[in-house]
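## retry 2 of 3
previous attempt timed out at serialization; input unchanged, resubmitting
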Amino acid sequence: MKKWSAIVPLRAGSKGLPKKNIRMLAGKPLYMHAVDVALEAGASRIIITTDIEELFTVELDSRVVLIKRPSELCDDAVPMAPVVLHAIEHAVISGPVVLLQATSPLRQACDLHSALDALSCGPFDLVMSVTDAEPSVLKWGKVLADGTYAPISNPEFCFSNRQSLGLLYKPNGAIYAMHAEWFYENKGFVTEKMGAIIMPASRSVDIDGLADFQLCEKYLNLKMDGDSV
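## retry succeeded, writing output
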C-alpha cells in the first residue's frame, strides 16, 4: 500500500467528559486506540496535534510525531478544518492522510484500508466513514416564522411510509481520508466528490459522555475476549 499518514487531534478541554482523550479505556488511554489502529493499518507517520502537555513526555512509537497545537485552535468552538490544516503545514504532510478522531475507538484496521482503497481507486476528493441512519429523517423539515413547513428533502417523503424511503446513512466521525495537498488547497472538507465506506453501528460509537465511554469499553472487552465487534 502507498505510504500514508494519520492525524490524531487531541484537545485537553472536554465539557462532556473531563480529560476524555487521555482517560483509560480498556487498559490504555483513549487516544492510544487511534494511534494503535493506525500503526496496525500500516501508517508511515502518525501526527498527534495537541495542547496536552503531559503527552510530550510519553514514550511512543518512532512513527508517532507530536506537534504543539496553538491555543487559538484549542477552543471547543473551533472547527476541525483549521486544526488539520495546521497539522498538514507544520508536520509537512503529503500524500494520503487519514483523520482519526480519538473519540471513535472502535474503528478497525480494515476500515482504514477500505477508506484508503476508495480514495485511491475512486473519483473522490474525500472518503468518510458512515453508518446506518433512521430513514424517517427524510420527513423532517423546518417551521418558518409564518408557520410554513419547509421539508429538508423531497416533500413527497413527508407522506411516504418508512419502508419506501430506502436506506440512509450518516457520517460516524471515525475516518476521513483525503490527499494532504487537496485538503490544504481546498482549505476544508467540503466537496461534491465525497465517497463513503460503511461501518456497522457496533463500530460507530462516538464518545461524548460517560455512557458512550462505558459502551465502548463493553465492546472492546468483548473483542479482547474473542467476540466480534
